[in-house]
Design brief:
single chain; 269 residues; alpha+beta; Immunoglobulin-like; 2 domains; five-stranded antiparallel sheet; three-stranded antiparallel sheet; flat
């Protein structure tokens, strides 16, 4: 569940998400902290979901030797070996998270200004609940991006027990529902997450990510940028004409001259 929550932190973040290959099927590398030179014995990915390379031996000494004693105990513990069902559950969870991310452009804001204005974090300050992140995504009423939702709340509960969080008065919502993809998803514990509009309170099971949405009732909708419209950062980067690196002209000219000399010399023979 902690692996799934870690994947969620990336899946629901702004920007381009980067996932390490195999993290969606509990890839382990037998605890190798740097498997660049470890070969397939530690790096292989099993697409039959029968083995995640746990307990294949101690990883290379170079980067891992100082932790071999601890690693040996962990790698020999059969309780830490995930089952094929565990691997397939994580894969299904990962696919659901990607579908939820794709369901709203609010997860994919295009500029820094949009992120600053439309992404806020609650549960902050000295009275915050430890282990709980509460993220609020809000559509811009003057330039709407999402035709379905104008508010999205994502709550990451890394603690082992249920977390109870009440919205402050300034963020009060008349209603919030669990995202339909999550409500129909593979995780029964996530389906237990709830929001009470009377008390403005969320209840999130332990080690669970929950996504709540508020329906967009606005009539005006501005669609997100299509594929033919460039991202502002790309447009700015291409504002000046391309200039090839210095020295390439001499190199190309020299190559042509050398070729001409070779042809001339061969004809003289």
């Amino acid at each position: 569940r902690m692996q799934n929550l870690a994947l969620d932190l990336v899946a629901y973040a702004q920007g381009v998400p980067f996932f390490h290959a195999g993290s969606e099927i509990l890839r382990s590398k037998s605890l190798d902290r740097d498997s660049y030179d470890s070969g397939d014995w530690f790096n292989a990915l099993d697409w039959t979901y029968r083995d995640n390379n746990w307990g294949h031996g101690l990883p290379l000494k170079d980067k891992n030797g100082s932790n071999w004693e601890l690693m040996a105990q962990l790698l020999a513990n059969p309780a830490l070996q995930p089952s094929p069902e565990d691997m397939q559950f994580t894969l299904a969870h990962f696919e659901t998270a990607l579908q939820i991310r794709r369901s709203s452009p609010l997860f994919r804001l295009r500029t820094a200004g949009q992120v600053i204005r439309q992404v806020t974090f609650l549960n902050t300050g000295p009275q915050q609940i430890p282990g709980l992140i509460v993220m609020h995504l809000e559509d811009d009423p003057q330039a709407r991006l999402d035709p379905e939702y104008d508010h999205i709340f994502v709550l990451f509960n890394a603690g082992p027990e249920e977390a109870v969080f009440s919205l402050p008065a300034a963020s009060a919502m008349e209603s919030l529902t669990l995202h339909p993809l999550l409500a129909a998803g593979p995780d029964p514990r996530a389906r237990q997450a709830a929001f009470d509009p009377e008390t403005q309170t969320f209840r999130i099971p332990g080690r669970t990510t929950a996504v709540f949405v508020h329906a967009n009732r606005a009539a005006v909708f501005s669609p997100p940028l299509n594929e033919n419209e460039r991202c502002p950062t790309v447009t700015a980067a291409m504002a000046e004409p391309y200039r090839p690196p210095r020295g390439w002209g001499w190199l190309v000219g020299g190559a042509l001259l050398l070729g001409a000399l070779i042809v001339w010399h061969s004809r003289r023979k």
